[in-house]
Amino acid sequence: MFRKFIRKTLLVQVICWGAILTANAQTSSDTLKITVKQTEDLFLKNNLQLIAQKYNIDNASAQIITARLFQNPDFNFNNGIYANNVNQGPAYKEQSFSISQLFYTAGKRNKNIQLAKIGVDQAKYQFFDLLRTLKFTLRSDFYSIYYQQQSAKVYDEEINSLAQTLKAYKEEYAKGNIAEKEMLRIQAQLYSLQAEYSGLLTGIDTLQSELKLLIKAPVSITVEPLVSEDLLVKNTVDGVPYRQLLDSAYANRYDLRYAKATIDYNDVNLKLQKATAVPDVSFSVNYDKLGGYGNNFLGAGIEFNLPFFNRNQGGIKQARIAVDQSKVQFQSTQNQVESDVATGYKGAVRLEKLYAGFDPQFKTDFTHLIQEVFINYKKRNLSLLEFLDFYDSYKTNTLQLNGILLNRVTALEQLNYVTGTPFFNK
Hints:
The protein is of the alpha+beta class. Helix content is 69%, strand content 10%.
């Protein structure tokens, strides 16, 4: 009777695994199957953070228009109302006009234009640095979801199989055909798998939520990444020299460019603050119809302040401090870039060696082995506990392999991020 029960159990497992494969082959209407290239296209088109940041470039560009404009002329008009001396006629006939124009000196206008142009460059650098950061998050989430979904399939197979097996064992236990310890062993294994599986799904859901937010996808859909394993295997860190990675980081890291632009900005601002110590000049033309000097008086004037006390000493000192500070910040950013590249390169080389140490046929051979184990279990050449141990080993090794593959891909993505150049996983 027990042999008959074992056969039934095995039949249930086979049917269950077939159902899982069929379910995985079906395409759900709320599943978005997408490649990393398509994901990036949606990201560039729909990401709200990028759209909002881009407005800062337009805003900075508007500052150039403002800096180029000249000051508006000042106009003044006076009309008489009342006067004691009426020898020259009623007071309302007395009228005077004046117009004046302010002119900036010491090149202040040009320096303000230079500052505005540098401001546009800084806004662009901030935009592209945000793009670099968000793209790294996007691609990392994409590959993390893919490999974790691959791991989830292993849990799906084992949990569904054990759930059906446990159901059959409970029925046989109720009939007194098997010992309680056999049933409890399967039950404990199932609960352990379900707890691990729940944690894995929670992590996937978190990544899914972040990825969908980046590409502005509906929250109701499930993203299913499509990855070419062959393409990922062809990417190796050995194909790009370290010096090339570092040079590319110097040229293409926009946070480093921003730091350099800050030095330029503060240099120009120092010149502007020094120029501010030079008084601006205002020229004016005046007309007085019934002036005290004579009728229809026409005059001209000039106005500027005398820099006896305020020569913008504080502004100049602050500008000098800002220059020195920005140079230190640039050096700090440059050191950070060098450290990022060195650390990323070492990590990628280490994971590359770890990956190279695995036999490409390992996964296929191990899958074949577990199939043979299943056949031997069916023939009762293996006990239930031995079968569960083999299957647990299969699960553990598959998860470890997926973890190694994910870490390797992420390390290459990290190099793309720290160099600002898409060297790998194109």
